[in-house]
Write a structure and sequence with these properties.
The complex is a heterodimer of chains A (263) and B (375).
Chain A: H1 6-30, H2 46-53, H3 55-88, H4 95-107, H5 110-124, H6 130-154, H7 158-166, H8 171-199, H9 203-208, H10 216-224, H11 230-261
Helix pairs in contact in A: 1-11, 2-11, 3-6, 3-8, 4-6, 6-8, 7-8, 8-11, 10-11
Chain B: E1 18-27, E2 30-40, E3 45-49, H1 56-64, E4 71-76, E5 79-80, E6 91-94, H2 106-116, H3 121-134, H4 150-162, E7 168-172, H5 180-197, E8 200-205, H6 208-214, E9 217-222, E10 225-230, H7 232-237, H8 242-247, E11 252-260, E12 266-269, E13 277-279, E14 289-295, E15 301-303, E16 312-323, E17 327-334, E18 339-345, E19 360-365, E20 371-373
Parallel strand pairs in B: 3-8, 3-9, 6-7, 7-8
Antiparallel strand pairs in B: 1-2, 1-4, 4-5, 9-10, 11-12, 11-14, 12-13, 14-20, 15-19, 16-17, 16-19, 17-18
Helix pairs in contact in B: 2-3, 2-4, 3-4
The chains are: A mainly alpha (263), B alpha+beta (375).
The complex binds adenosine-5'-triphosphate and magnesium ion.
Adenosine-5'-triphosphate binds at residues 27, 30, 32, 50, 52-58, 206 of chain B.
């Protein structure tokens, strides 16, 4: 390993400070006793307690979690199927187009995705709310899922599947008995990634939501416009914890998978 | 041939287990298998031998059902395989990469095919037990594949492929990754298992010695074609072409023109001013045809004195000597520049050796020792 020079250490510290000091401040001030956001008045968890009494917050939280779980689950199923097709079907007409299109939503500005979905929903005349947000989240999560799962499938030895078929499985049984259990860590981390993506999405959710369906990021954003309250700090800290936890868990799972493969 | 010798291929009434007729396989423009005709009989240990890329694996994958023929038919037990999907064929394959399922234990790997067939629980347990003891892995039943050594994994793969006792077991370079000692042990283990269970094995190998050791018959392939199918002994002693002769073991080749002596004897005129070489075999081509005499180095004797009458002989000078421990190989240059290898067992110590560089020596062999090849 290369030795860290003083310059490198400084750069690293500044970089991390730049990234994480705002978040750290947010979390610290969420435990602030004082009502004034910028003045420390002692440690307290009262803002978390008051959050639990807040009807609007509880509603938003419930909606957000339902959207996250439903969209991540559906996106994982669809994304895994897409990855299987792209990796396994070999060369079919339009394969390059398909695999290119899978990546497109990853780089597409969220405003564009949100706006185009909004136009679609308006044109189709569907009532916007829980399901439209869920659908929108499925569309972008699915891309992440298929990227994660197809990179796992590229290193998957096809002869394992052939061995299963040789021993009497049809293609579907071979997938569920051999392929899926082996790629499961990748699928789970893709699911966790989808959950966190859905949890912290503001832009697309704002475009595609309707009356009565407000997610946590939307709730935070709209109340911040009325002024930052310690309660919002608490809410944001919760969200940071959830998203951070999801990402860390996903990376631990895929790290484990890699070290297992290297055996 | 007496009736207790195993040679169903000589019996016109024998029913083949595998019948391949006019099998053609193209990948795009590339012809991987070129009109293959082949019979494999029950209880055979059949070896496919040939250089890399000649189509051995493709034949196996065709039998297992992972490739479909471009033309021709493949029959197993009289049934056309085209109608049977790979998962319901009476064939199991042991993959070159072993393809063990990493997420389940050794015992579960072995039980996989049996569970898939929904056999009763106690039967599965008994069979797994039997297979584990057959490959001597009883202690490792609950390990995961990644906790095993290469040789142990290979035996798990064998046990898994064997567990269903398929009428036909395909082994694609099953011993490729093993060291020489373990490879030889496993070869004998394989032959033992095959005999005990009365199954038919088809093995792919790069290793000619391995093919000679285990096989009842060998098919030598080249560029998608089968060049010769015969017993190891026949392939070695009577190759049908220069290609086969050169592919298996060391061989001396003397080219010349073949003339008919009588109904049972042929003469090879190989150099101006040298007496012709007699071959105790009828000439199969026209008189004066171009031919090559193939002669194994161990059939050639070396001497200072003129050999006794009745032996084929040539004279030359020793060009080089190779010493391999148990053998000495003399490279003798003939009058026309051809170099002939003569192999002698080192029954005496090196310092007692009779021959040295630049010695003029006689080489001799029996008229039945060589094969005359017309291609
Ligand atoms: N799916 C495929 N697409 C195109 N060409 C193929 C395919 N599979 C095999 N081939 C070609 O067919 C030929 C025969 O391949 P095969 O795997 O049967 O060789 P092999 O005799 O088993 O060689 P080796 O001893 O190296 O394993 C090779 O030239 C290979 O490149
Ligand atoms: Mg091969």
């Amino acid at each position: 390993m290369q030795k860290l020079s003083p310059f490198n250490i400084t750069a690293l510290t500044l970089g991390f400070a730049f990234l994480y000091i705002p978040i750290l401040l947010l979390v610290i001030f969420s435990f602030n006793e004082s009502k004034l956001v910028t003045v420390w008045g002692g440690f307290s968890t009262k803002w978390y307690a008051s959050l639990m009494q807040d009807k609007a917050f509880l509603n938003a939280a419930w909606t957000t979690f339902r959207i996250a779980l439903v969209s991540a689950t559906i996106a994982t199923v669809l994304g895994t199927m897409a990855a299987m097709a792209l990796v396994r079907l070999g060369k079919f007409r339009g394969r390059t187009l398909f695999s290119g299109m899978i990546y497109a939503p990853l780089v597409m500005p969220e405003v564009i995705t949100g706006l185009s979905l909004l136009l679609l929903f308006v044109a189709m005349n569907v009532t916007r709310g829980f399901w439209t947000i869920t659908l929108a989240h499925i569309t972008f999560s699915m891309c992440y899922v298929s990227v994660v799962v197809s990179s796992r499938l590229h290193s998957f030895d096809v002869s394992l599947e052939e061995a299963a078929i040789d021993l009497g499985c049809n293609t579907i049984q071979a997938f569920f008995k051999v392929t899926l259990p082996i790629i499961l860590p990748a699928v789970i981390s893709a699911w966790l990634l989808s959950v966190t993506l859905s949890l912290d999405d503001l832009v697309i959710a704002s475009f595609t939501s309707g009356p009565g369906a407000t997610t946590l990021p939307m709730e935070i954003y709209s109340s911040v416009r009325l002024g930052v309250s310690p309660q919002i700090n608490a809410l944001s800290s919760l969200l940071v914890g959830l998203v951070g936890g999801g990402v860390i868990l996903a990376s631990i799972i895929s790290r484990r998978q890699i070290s297992k493969e290297q055996h | 041939m007496s009736h207790n010798v195993f040679a169903p291929w000589d019996d016109p009434n024998a029913v083949p287990l595998v019948e391949i007729r006019g099998l053609l396989k193209r990948f795009g423009d590339f012809v991987a298998l070129d009109h293959i005709d082949l019979n494999v009989y029950p209880r055979e240990f059949f070896a496919l031998l040939g250089p890399s890329g000649c189509g051995k694996t493709t034949i196996m994958r065709m039998l297992a059902g992972f490739e479909t023929p471009t033309a021709g038919t493949v029959k197993l037990e009289g049934q056309d395989l085209a109608e049977i999907p790979p998962y319901s064929r009476n064939v199991n394959m042991m993959f070159q990469s072993y393809a063990l399922f990493p997420h389940i234990s050794v015992a579960d790997n072995i039980a996989f095919g049996l569970k898939q067939d929904k056999r009763p629980k106690d039967e599965i347990a008994a069979r797994v037990e039997e297979m584990l003891s057959l490959v001597q892995l009883g202690k490792f039943a609950h390990r995961k594949p990644h906790q095993l050594s290469g040789g142990q994994r290979q035996r798990v793969a064998l046990a898994r492929a064997l567990a269903k006792k398929p009428p036909l077991l395909l082994l694609d370079e099953p011993l490729g990754a093993l060291d020489k000692k373990l490879r030889q042990e496993t070869q004998f283990e394989l032959m033992d298992i095959q005999e005990k269970l009365g199954l038919t094995f088809m093995i792919v190998t790069h290793d000619q010695e391995e093919a000679m050791t285990v096989a009842s018959r060998i098919a030598v392939m080249n560029e998608g074609k089968i060049v010769q199918v015969a017993t190891p002994n026949t392939i070695y002693e009577h190759p049908n072409s220069v290609y086969v002769a050169g592919f298996l073991g060391e061989v001396n080749l003397i080219a010349g023109k073949a003339h008919r002596l009588d109904d049972h004897h042929t003469e090879l005129h190989w150099a101006e001013g040298e007496p012709p070489l007699r071959i105790d075999h009828p000439l199969e081509g026209t008189d004066g045809v171009d031919a090559t005499l193939a002669l194994r180095p161990e059939k050639v004797s070396i001497s200072h004195e003129e050999p006794q009458a009745g032996l084929c002989r040539v004279q030359g000078t020793i060009n080089d000597i190779a010493y391999t421990g148990n053998l000495s190989i003399y490279f003798v240059k003939l009058s026309n520049g051809v170099i002939i290898k003569a192999q002698e067992a080192n029954s005496r110590r090196l310092e007692h050796r009779n021959y040295t560089w630049e010695d003029t020596v006689w080489l001799s062999w029996r008229p039945t020792a060589g094969s005359l090849l017309l291609q």
